[in-house]
Structure formats: structure tokens, C-alpha cells
Amino acid sequence: MTVPDLVRHDGAPLAVLVCEALPRSGENGPGSYNMTVLRAVAALGYRLHLIVTGLNVAGERVEPELPCTVSYLHARPVGRWLLPLSLSAAARWLKNRLGLKVRKGAADKVAWIGRFLSEAEVVRIGQSLPPVPVDLLLIDTIFRADALRAIPQARNKVLIAHDVFHQRCASFRANGFMPRPAVEADLEAQRVATFDAIIAINPHDATELAAMAPAAGVRTILPVVANAGRVQLQSGAHEREPHRIFYLGSKAYHNVDGLRWFLEHVWPVVRANVPDAHMDVAGGVCGEFSGDQPGVTLHGRVEDLSVITRHCSFAVNPVLMGSGIKIKMVDYFCLGLGCITTGNGAAGFPEQPPPPFDVAEGKADFAASVVGAMQQPDHAALLRERTIAYTPHFSHEAAVARLRELLVSAVATPAPAPATAAARP
Questions:
Q1: How far is CA 290 from the centre of its chain?
Q2: pTM for the whole thing?
């Protein structure tokens, strides 16, 4: 495996991220959260190198959002293409080229939540490093924790936890799903304890992770969305349609399951009370549904969500399982939309200032909340107004401050000086 030339920035320290996929803002929750961390790392003056371990990488090359170098374990760059290096990557590429997609049916109760690295992949990670010291090693979830063995010389080893996975597994099992791999508390504790520091996605996770790894520094970095802290309510409020709502989701199991539950049990009740009710659905989740639901438009992946959301009154997140924090709700807030969600969806969000969401549990309660917000436009407007004071929690500036605090207090060497304004991403 060839190692790409490393672009040097006046001797700036090197940060390496080992991740499943090339991080992309808005692509999915994990990718968006990795971009939150990467942007903060770059703002603190590090240069970046990414090692992508996932199998679904072959095809046309996608440029990273930040200046960095990239190594792929299962693909080789050739011009503007990534050619598969393994049979598994080739199979994924062929499946995508042929459009062979298998929808997640209601009876499909096996939920794949991650993939541990093989020994061969650990070896290749060591071979894909730039020939300079690694000052900061970032590992994307416990599923890639074995990469620590491939980069033992890294000065500071930080886990981007994303989740408390044994709790996620318990949540999936409680809803009738079989999580794979099945992560138990002892295994997770063993993995997280190998890190110098841990980045948690919400305060609840930070408490749980600190208990599992008492010797590690743990800090919460909330996910960032581009305009967080700068939300402005649109002046043309007349564009809002009181009976029009929005949903955004990837094709992850908890999204598919939650949207299916909503469409089967909640939406018919909403339409019976509000006959012209309409829901716009965006994201990869659209590929898991047929598109024949009355009053529902499936948009697929949308580059500029505001084109749709400026007409919507509020959003929904009918998620029934999972853990961590629901980044789609941060997207809603930063688009100026309030939300109706479940207790699971609300978990992990700050309680002050007053949050821009309502919590509803069960089919009848959720339907009543949606109908009520449609029939009471002033309440939907109140939730939208709350987004202005709430979104600074999810700003880039807040993430940079929390990361600097973590690096100064919890790892072997202090964080470097911040990059100059001109060099900031």
C-alpha cells in the first residue's frame, strides 16, 4: 500500500483519524459528528491524515471537506477513481453499480451496528501512516480500537465514542432487534479503557464512559451543524404551511423502524384529523419505502434542505430505539424548525434554554401532538423561535473550546496554538 504525500504546514503537529467512511457533513450522523471533531482539530492547528477502513469505498473519488491526506484500506486511488483492493470492497462496488438494494423489511430484525477490524486490516493501518510522528490519534468508535496496536507510537490516543454501544444494543433488543455485533458492557469497558481521552456526544454518555474508563479524560462535544448559533427565522413567514412537516434520516435501522412505525400507526390518524396534512421526507431512508403513502413525498438525498424546509411548519423524529444524540434534530434546529420526538429522541439534549422540541410517547400521544401543532400554528412558531437561543450549544466555537480543554487537561502534550484566521477551515 502506498502512503500519500503529506502536505506540511510549517511543522504543525499531525492528527490521524481512523474512521469507517470519509466524513461528510449531512451525509449521516456518524459522518457529521466526525466532521465536528475534525474541524475542531484543524482549528487548533493540526494537519490531518485520514485512514478509511470501510468496505463501501470503491467508485468515483469524493474530495474531503477539509485539507488532508487520505489512505484507504480497501481501495486504491487511480485518477478520479477508487479501485477496490479486496473481494468484499469489489462486491460492494458491484452491488452499488447494479443498483442491487435490499430494503429493510419489517421482519428484518438483525441490526448491524458496526464492524470490528480484522488482523489483516490492523496490519494495513500501520502500513498506511505518513512517515512522520503522530501527535494525536483519533479513533472512530470502539469498533476500530484495535488500530491502537498498529500505531503504538502515537503520543495522544483519543476515542470518538459516538455512543455507549452496550446501551444501544440493549435498546435494540428491547424493540425486538438483534444487534450485531452484540456489545456487552465488559467488552466496551475493556476497549474504552485503552485510551488517554474520550470524546462523548452528550453529557449522559460522558458520565457512562467516565465510569468505564476512570483514568481517561472525558469531555462532551456536542455535534455541530454549519450555521449553529446563527439561526435566523425567515422573514417570509407566509411561506410556512401549517399542515406541512419534515423528516430527515439515513437508512440506519432505527430511522427505518421509526419512520415505518410513524407511517403505519401515527400518520393515518393525523390525516384523518387534518386531511391536507403533508410530510416531506429526505435522506437515504427514502430508499427503504415505496412512495405510495398518502400525503408523503420522498425526496431522497437533497443538497439544500432549506428549499424544502422553508415551507414546513415543524419536523418529527419518531425514533423508538438507539442511544447517543440524534443529529437529525440538530439539523432541524439549525434549519429553524422545531420538532416533535419521543423520549428516546430527546435523550442527551441540553435542558436549558427551553429546547425547541416536544416529547410524545406512544402512537396516540404522538398523533395528538402532531395534530395539535398543525392546528395551533402559534405553538409551532414558538418551537421555531426557541431554535435561535438553543443552537449555540452546537456551534463550531463551542466544539473547539471543548476539544482544547480536553487536550490540555487529559493528554500527554498540550494542544498546539490555534491556527490563524486565514488558515481556519
A1: 25
A2: 0.81
Q: Tell me the backbone φ, ψ of residue 218, rounded to 5 degrees.
A: -130, 130
Check: CB of residue 243 under 8 Å from CB of residue 271.
no
C-alpha cell at 251: 437508512
Task: Write out pLDDT tens, residues 52-68.
Answer: 999 998 889 999 999 99
Residues 103, 89: Cα–Cα separation, whole Å = 20
CB 113 within 8 A of CB 179: yes
In DSSP terms, 6 is beta-bridged to none
Residue 284, exposed/middle/buried by CB under 10 A (0-12, 13-18, 19+)?
middle
pLDDT cut 70: percent of the chain above it: 89
Interatomic CA distance for residues 90 and 69, integer angstroms: 23
- DSSP 3-state of 140: strand
Q: With beta carbons less than 8 A apart as the criterion, state whether 171 and 188 touch.
A: no
What is the set of domains in the chain, with CATH numbers?
Answer: 14-224+395-423 (3.40.50.2000), 237-392 (3.40.50.2000)
Q: pLDDT tens digits, residue range 357-393? A: 999 999 999 999 999 999 999 999 999 999 999 998 8
C-alpha cell at 133: 510522528
Indicate the SS3 state at residue 152: coil
- In this structure, the chain runs to a length of 425
**Closest-CA residue to 332 (of 283, 366, 291, 379):** 283
Indicate the burial class of 14 (C-beta count within 10 angstroms; 0-12, 13-18, 19 or more).
buried
